[in-house]
Amino acid sequence: MVNLFLNLFFAFSTVTNPLNPVDQAVKPLTAATAPPRFEGTWKYVVMGEQGVPESQFTLTLHQEGNRVKGQYCAIAQSGGKTDCDPDVIYNLTGTIQKGKLIGKFYSFFGMPKDKGSFELSFLPGQRLQWTVTHPTKSVYYAPEHCVLKPVKQP
To answer: For a designed S-S bond to 58, which of 73, 80, 95, 152 qualifies (C-beta 3.0 to 4.6 A apart)?
Structure first.
C-alpha cells in the first residue's frame, strides 16, 4: 500500500501545475523560438533613366525582444520631397507577431498623432517586404508597398 502511494505521489509530482508560478517560468529563447531580427538599416531605391534615384525609402530599426522602434526616411520626386528628419526621431513602432512586424508610423509632414499602419515581413534572400495596411490621413511619401534590402555597415 505504501509503495502504491509513493508511486502515485511521484507520478503526479512531475506534472506541471498551471496555477504554480514556478511551473510557469519563462523558457529561455533559442534560435527556434527567438523573434526574427529586424534590427538594422534597410533600403529601397527606384533608379531613374540617368542613373539618379527617383525615390528612396530607408528604414533604421532597433529591436528589443519582440518590440521594434525606428525611423523611416522617404525621398520622392528625385529629391523634391523629403519625408525625413535629420535628427533621430522614431516615427514608427511595432511588435513582432507570428514572424511579422506589425506597427504604426507617422509622416514628418503630418502630426505624430496621425498614424498609419504597416506590416514588415521577411522574404527569401534577406529582404523585407513593407506594406502600408492603413494610410495616414496626412501626406506621406513612404511607398505603399516595396521590398527593402539590408544596408551593409562599414
So the answer is: 73
Tell me the CB-side half-sphere exposure of residue 138, using CA atoms within 13 A.
Answer: 13
Give the Cα separation of 74 and 143 in Å (integer).
Answer: 8
Give the pTM: 0.76
Rounded Cα distance, 62 and 71, in Å = 9
Radius of gyration of the chain (CA): 23
The predicted-structure confidence for 60-109, as pLDDT tens digits, reads as follows: 999 999 999 999 999 999 999 999 999 999 999 999 999 999 999 999 99
Q: Choose among 59, 37, 38: nearest CA to 146.
A: 59
Q: What CA–CA distance (Å, rounded) separates 36 from 19?
A: 31
Do residues 108 and 85 touch, judged by C-beta distance below 8 A? Answer: yes
Cell representation of residue 17: 501545475
- Tell me if residue 150 falls in helix, strand or coil: strand
